[in-house]
């Protein structure tokens, strides 16, 4: 079955004033940066979708959760010797804070869960929503992915060789996923593929979705891993080049033949998340997802999550 993406919204590019999205001043003041950005993006997406279909599930994804509030609480815990602690940072440090705040503000008394699976958090949230829609348990699902960074977290991740020097990013992206197409639909998801074996990135994929778009797929899945495009010393393009490519609709490196025919032949254009201009972080694939849809209107694409260094997942889309 196809799943339709509606009203995709970025917390960094809100169309409405945040004061109209989160009217209560004291609530806004207590929110950390990522909570405020995520909640605002989620509410704006809901407002844009309107009453076309009832929202009966909220599924969010994050790699590290609300890092700044976690740090604030732990710092106070040490400084105050575990006495007279402000409960607000603790309450807002949990991974499900953003999804819960959206539900409270919009009165959504429904299924609400958060996935924290590092690099594939977003994909697991998509699969959960797809299963609910496919089983008829939900008509419309609000999906979001968010992550933030702080100087201390970036240093730790660099020491662990997870974050590249000075390039660890953050974002908040939300949209409404439905099984029915609406006038707000910007893309249709036809497949979600995640490696069955986490120890072998780019290996066998488990599939959620139909078999539409199978033509031309074998060349991608059997291509050698580790191929990198020309560019910098490690094979990656500069951030400026990536942004230029994204604006031009250039999908970056490919493991199969060039298929840019405007989607007329039914073949699928390959897009690598690391080449869309999104700065790497655990849920950067959601930002790459948003950018890829905007840059490939009218095309069928497969978006690879290559931020971990291999193909962590593949999402097949028909952009509208």
Named CATH architecture of the largest domain: 3-Layer(aba) Sandwich
Instruction: Give the DSSP E fraction (strand runs of 2 or more residues).
Output: 15-25%
How many helix segments? 11
- Rg is 20 Å
Main beta sheet: strand number and arrangement?
Answer: 10 strands, mixed
**Tally of extended strands?**
10
CATH topology name of the largest domain, in short, is Peroxisomal Thiolase, Chain A, domain 1
Distance between the termini: 17 Å
- Helicity range of the residues? 25-40%
CATH class of the largest domain: Alpha Beta
Briefly say what this structure is.
The chain is an alpha/beta fold. The protein contains 11 helices and 10 strands.
Verbal overview:
With 320 residues, the protein is an alpha/beta fold. It has two domains: 3-178, Peroxisomal Thiolase, Chain A, domain 1 (3-Layer(aba) Sandwich); 189-319, no CATH class. It contains eleven helices and ten strands. Strands 1, 2, 3, 4, 5, 6, 7, 8, 9 and 10 form a ten-stranded mixed sheet that branches.
Structural descriptors:
Peroxisomal Thiolase, Chain A, domain 1; single chain; ten-stranded mixed beta sheet; 10 strands; 32% helix; 320 residues; alpha/beta; 2 domains; 11 helices
Topology:
Layout: E1 3-10, H1 18-21, H2 25-30, H3 33-49, E2 57-61, H4 67-79, H5 87-91, H6 97-106, E3 111-115, H7 121-134, E4 140-147, H8 151-159, E5 171-178, E6 185-195, E7 205-209, H9 218-221, H10 239-248, E8 269-272, H11 284-295, E9 300-304, E10 314-319
Parallel strand pairs: 2-3, 2-4, 8-9
Antiparallel strand pairs: 1-5, 1-6, 4-5, 6-7, 6-10, 9-10
Helix pairs in contact: 3-6
């Amino acid at each position: 079955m196809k799943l339709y993406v509606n009203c995709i919204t970025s917390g960094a590019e809100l169309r409405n004033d945040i004061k109209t999205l989160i009217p209560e001043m004291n609530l806004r003041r207590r929110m950390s940066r990522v909570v405020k950005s995520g909640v605002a993006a989620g509410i704006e997406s809901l407002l844009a979708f309107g009453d076309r279909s009832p929202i009966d599930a909220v599924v969010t994804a994050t790699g590290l959760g609300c890092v700044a509030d976690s740090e604030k609480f732990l710092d106070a815990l040490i400084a105050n010797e575990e006495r007279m602690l402000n409960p607000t940072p603790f309450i807002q440090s949990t991974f499900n804070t953003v999804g819960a705040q959206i539900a409270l503000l919009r009165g959504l008394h429904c299924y609400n869960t958060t996935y924290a699976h590092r690099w594939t958090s977003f994909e697991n949230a998509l699969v959960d929503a797809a299963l609910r829609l496919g089983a008829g348990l939900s008509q419309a699902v609000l999906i979001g992915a968010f992550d933030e960074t702080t100087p201390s977290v970036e240093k730790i991740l660099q020491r662990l060789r997870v974050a590249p020097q000075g390039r660890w990013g953050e974002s908040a992206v939300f949209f409404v996923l439905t099984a029915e197409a609406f006038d707000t639909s910007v893309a249709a998801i036809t497949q979600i593929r995640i490696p069955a074996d986490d120890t072998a990135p780019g290996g066998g994929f488990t599939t959620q979705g139909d078999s539409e778009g199978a033509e031309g797929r074998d060349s991608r899945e059997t291509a050698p891993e580790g191929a990198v495009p020309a560019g910098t010393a490690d094979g990656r393009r500069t951030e400026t080049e990536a942004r230029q490519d994204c604006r031009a609709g250039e999908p970056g490196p490919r493991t199969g033949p060039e298929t840019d025919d405007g989607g007329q032949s039914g073949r699928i254009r390959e897009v690598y998340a690391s080449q869309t201009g999104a700065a790497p972080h655990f849920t950067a694939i959601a930002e790459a997802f948003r950018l890829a849809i905007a840059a490939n209107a009218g095309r069928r694409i497969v978006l690879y999550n290559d931020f971990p260094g291999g193909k962590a997942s593949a999402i097949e889309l028909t952009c509208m």
